[in-house]
Fold this protein.
Amino acid sequence: MQVDTLEYNNPISLAKIERILKILDLTKDCKVLDVGCGRGELLRQVVRLYNCHAVGVDINEEEINAAKQASKSLNIDWHCQSIREMDLSSQGFSTVFCIGSTHAFGEEEGYKKTLAAFQKLIAKDGLVIVGEGYWKKEPDPEYLKETGIKPDSLKKHFENVELAEKMGFTPLYITRSSESEWDHFESCFWLKAEEKLRNDPRNPDLQKKADHWRKWRRAYLRWGKDTMGFGLYVFRK
């Protein structure tokens, strides 16, 4: 069976992300940052569109190595380290991204800390694009118990926007993941885990991963898909 891959590791469709990329209005002199860049597909798309300079940061060495291999001809600098250990304040980025990776700035209040950090990293009138989860409704205690998610780790959708406004940002464009986008995102992980185990059924590590995703799948289908949403927010400083 062909295992689908996620070009962007979040529950927002390619079409929605690429629509946002087309409204950035960058020039070749602009600098762009992506925190939690993974394999770098987002930055590759940005650099191809605008021929600008980009910086990608991620703590996963395997992901960064894959990003480097896929972008040798592009003007992108890749860094395998924690964003909290870096000083990029002098860069004056025109646009900064952090989609599904606000925990990179702190496990607690990660979204707020991301916005605060980006205030210092972007130039005047710069754009901030953040992807963040939110509660559609109050989470069931059993859902939190099954997944280990803390009830205060997410806000409501409107609270994500209001917090950014209070911190001095102007909301420009907002979109959210649909139910089908969430289903696709979650299913890719289940499918990958099950297919790897099927091809190597005696591998204890693969069995452990499959068990993890089976537990997560049950929680998602029973509670998660009605409880958690994902927003993509474009703000101007």
Q: What stands out?
A: The radius of gyration is 18 Å. The longest helix spans residues 204-227. The domain at 14-138+148-177+226-236 is CATH 3.40.50.150 (Rossmann fold).
